[in-house]
Amino acid sequence: MSTSRDALERGNKARDLRVAAADMLSLANAAAITGVDEPRLARWAQRGRCIALEDSGGRQWLPKWQFEPPLWDALLKLAKALGTTDGWVLLAFLETPLGALDGVTPRAAIERGLADRVVRLACFDE
Amino acid sequence: MTTKIYLAGPDVFFPDSQAHFAALEAKCRAHGCVGIRPSEGDMELGGTGDEIAERIYQANIELLCQCDAVLANLTPFRNALESDSGTVFEVGFAVALGKPVAGHLPQRDQTHESKVTAVCGITRDARGVAWDAAHGYLVEEFGQPVNLMVSRAAELFSNVDDAIAYLAKVTSARQAEFLDRGQRSLDEAKRTGVYVPAEEVIARLQRKLDDATARFLEQRVPAPLMAAAIEVFGGESTAVEWFMKPAMGLDRARPIDLLGSPEGMQAVRDFLARLDGGVYT
Q1: pLDDT tens for each residue of B170-195
Q2: Looking at CA atoms only, how far is residue B259 from chain A in angstroms?
Q3: How far apart (Å, rounded) are the C-alpha atoms in residues B84 and B81?
Q4: Thinking of the domain B1-108+146-194, which architecture would CATH place it in?
Q5: Does A34 sit within 8 Å of B270, measured CB to CB?
Q6: Could you report the per-residue pLDDT of A61-86, keeping only the tens digit for each?
Q7: A34 touches chain B (CB under 8 A)
Q8: Is some CB atom of chain B closer than 8 A to the CB atom of A72?
Q9: Best label site of A4, A31, A48, B211, fewest CB within 10 Å?
């Protein structure tokens, strides 16, 4: 019988697998690439200005693609629309295909210049 | 408009350099121009050799930019053949800025090859090509008084007075041409009734400059770094200005020029973080 502990472990494993992907940057690498110091990136993550994901060991990881202009320009609006600054919630929204976007993910839609539409959809996301 | 002439040359190394420059300045005044001495580096400020050298370099670059023309003493210095390397650099820099350059050297009428012959000797191979006998290097026989990259860049004279007179004449002609162009525009405006006030022209140029700067920054500055700079400086225009101006805390480099390398990016990042903490140097 599956316990809540098992569920948590499965969740942790899935998260660790996701942050091990090639599109993730450590906080130090994100600072090196963006030219923004680590404390500021951490502060930004706390207020939804950027996405930072915590792994099971407490380390922070940042999706590299969020720093490109189309995503970067939309992120803060998206966090406000979704009413969260939690990196995992923001990532899940961005990477889940939506029927309202003809089956593409919000991330792909934003990269195609549909940021406004994605933000409007996010306002109705539950 | 008084013509400012930068006085390039190894003259700063002469034992009587002060008197020498005073004489050059007097000659410039006699032609209605102002002679500008190279920087001596504000030695009283002290510093390491590198710091003093950098100060002199930056100051001379600024003076070259401000001047209308350059008078270059191309007399061979510390050797029998070649001009002072710093002077040659300044000649090239001024030419690249579109400023007229007049060089003076007593041996103006001797060809470079005749001087090489006198100093090194010349041998000729079977095809008649000349090689200097001391080092075995090719000798260009184009009849130029100095290396052709200098002789084609600058107008050369055998005495200082002629060189200054030339610069006075050329700069005066350029100023007259500038005024004439302005007058022609004014006449055209009167004739057609189409008159664009100077303020509007400046505003249009400023808009073009702002657009070009924004495009330039967009290509060079990562979006998050611009966002961080806007946070630190409290506005986009101040942040943009910061990227484009030399910063004391970055050894007078412009932040924008450092972003091409990981080390430079780190220097900018650390400096911005220090500024955010209220540390300005």
Answers
A1: 999 999 999 999 899 889 988 998 88
A2: 8
A3: 10
A4: 3-Layer(aba) Sandwich (3.40)
A5: no
A6: 999 999 998 899 999 999 999 999 99
A7: yes
A8: yes
A9: A4
